[in-house]
Specification:
- This protein is mainly alpha-helical.
- The chain has one domain.
- The chain is built from 15 helices and no strands.
């Protein structure tokens, strides 16, 4: 296989109608490691919005069961893309997300912002650290995929293009990022989980490396220590050096799924999408029906 095998395959596809196939190739063949890191940072950013971070803290999921919440999020999102949003498996994953979100009072604005992070943060990550920059076809496909996912989740007023998502993200963060003890607790728990994926001797370097990839606005919102210029240069330069090496590697023949990673630890014997995530005791029986109606009407 030539190094540009998947690029040539993507160029044959229509991003307006075959966006899922393009997104699968980009996520699991061309940039699997990059997408895993970028989506993790995308979710991490959302905690800095107090209305989101406080809710996550109050559920206890992100501070008391951090590993499980990490695994559930990765597996549910992956199930939608791998199976396809219109498939029975994909719809089951979307229904599970809608059930969880429907159990809490989450504004449409917060849901729109979270959706924007899934579009914008991976795009910007690949622009800065990818072994190649995403093509226009890949960018359009990503936008169309998340527009469809957002519609199935019942999110209203979804942006029409990448520029719209970027404007939404940047404006929402400038208006809503703010320090809060609960959001900081969620951020700390998440960083502790990240550090646990590596040998203990690397705990401090990994934590410093993570902060070095955060922008000033995010650091200020969590009141995290500003890393030195040297650490920032080393971290970001290291990622760019990695990109140069990956550029000369052969194309990935087999997809690299999150469910196969060692850091997914909660379900060693396998899992059912319908049982992932949270099931609050106060969740009314009608939530599933409401979620189905939202998905169907979309």
């Amino acid at each position: 296989m030539r190094r540009d095998h998947w690029q040539r395959r993507i160029a044959e596809l229509d991003p307006e109608t075959q966006y899922e196939e393009i997104a699968r190739i980009a996520s699991y063949h061309e940039f699997p490691w990059d997408y895993q890191q970028a989506l993790s940072f995308a979710l991490f950013r959302t905690y800095a919005v107090p209305s989101i971070g406080r809710l996550l803290y109050d559920t206890g999921e992100f501070t008391q069961r951090t590993q499980k919440r990490h695994d559930d999020t990765a597996l549910v999102l992956e199930a939608v893309l791998v199976d396809g949003a219109e498939s029975p498996g994909g719809r089951a994953a979307v229904r599970r997300m809608n059930q969880m979100h429907g159990s809490y009072d989450i504004s449409n604005d917060d849901l729109r912002y979270v959706l924007a992070t899934f579009v914008v943060v991976p795009h910007r990550w690949l622009q800065d650290y990818g072994w190649r920059r995403p093509s226009e076809v890949e960018t359009t496909a990503s936008v169309r995929y998340y527009q469809r996912l957002g519609a199935l989740m019942g999110i209203k007023d979804i942006p029409a293009d990448l520029a719209g998502f970027e404007e939404l993200l940047d404006t929402y963060e400038s208006q809503h990022f703010a320090p809060d003890p609960k959001t900081r607790a969620v951020a700390d728990a998440t960083l502790e989980l990240l550090v646990s994926f590596y040998p203990r001797v690397l705990a401090r370097p990994v934590e410093a490396f993570s902060r070095a990839l955060m922008d000033d606005r995010l650091l200020a919102a969590f009141e995290l220590e500003q890393p030195s210029r040297a650490v920032v240069a080393l971290a970001r330069g290291g990622l760019r050096m990695r990109a140069r090496v990956v550029r000369f590697l052969p194309p990935r023949r087999r997809p690299r799924y999150a469910k196969d990673l060692k850091r997914i630890k909660t379900y060693p014997g396998g899992f059912m999408v319908e049982r992932l995530g949270t099931f609050p005791a106060t969740m009314p029986e009608t939530v599933e029906d409401a979620a189905d109606r939202r998905a169907t009407s979309a």
